[in-house]
Amino acid sequence: RSFLNHTAYLSCYFPNSQKTDIKDLRVFWQKGAVEVVHEVNYGQEKHDNLSPKYINRTKMDMDKWTLQLLNAGIVDEGQYKCIIQQRDKGSPKVIHTSECLLHIIANYSQPEIAWLHTGELKPNEYLNLSCSSSGGYPEPKQMTWLISRENTTRTLTHHMDISQDAVTKLYSVTSKLNITVPTNSLTNISCLLHLGEQLGSLVSVPLGI
């Protein structure tokens, strides 16, 4: 995993790598079947075959056998393959291959609750609220509402509208809540954006009514 516009680290470590002289090896990285990401030919970096979008964006750390992909973007997501060949009589022989899957993460803004209501609130009328968050990646799982009143909390899951920016590929999400205006007791309403098991959740500032 790598944060958007940060450096992604793709490992190609293999057994006995410390005993192997880089000058005896060809190391190349590719994405998918055709895109060459980085190439080191017997100790010398080669740029002739690189896919244009990776030129000046990669560095190989030979001590850690790790490729650094600079300024990682959403278009860089996907499967990368590292292939290491050793100099041999005749053609070089493959001594190691490894694959890694790159996921890009962009932080969503803190969810924010907005009133969709004008005029004075009256008991037993309907209260309309929305909750929004933007600028994130990947697509979130769901948005839930938490309604807390007198030591009890109700959880409501409503439809979440999702839009994706055509250029940046970042997501914006909104959910709407329609409940009766609470009477006689303080009610706190929050909304929770679920980003997935490994990324956790974001919660709004509670709205007190």
Automatic annotation (TrEMBL):
Main subcellular location: membrane
* GO cellular component terms, A-Z: external side of plasma membrane
Q: Does the keyword Ligase apply?
A: no
User: What does the record list as GO biological process?
Assistant: cell surface receptor signaling pathway; cellular response to lipopolysaccharide; immune response; negative regulation of T cell proliferation; positive regulation of T cell proliferation; T cell costimulation
Entry's localization field: Cell membrane
Coiled-coil ranges (or none): none
Q: List the InterPro entries.
A: BTN3A2-like_Ig-C, Ig-like_dom, Ig-like_dom_sf, Ig-like_fold, T-cell_Activation_Regulation
Instruction: List residues of the Ig-like domain.
Output: 1-98, 111-191
Q: What is this protein called?
A: CD86 protein
Record organism? Corythaeola cristata
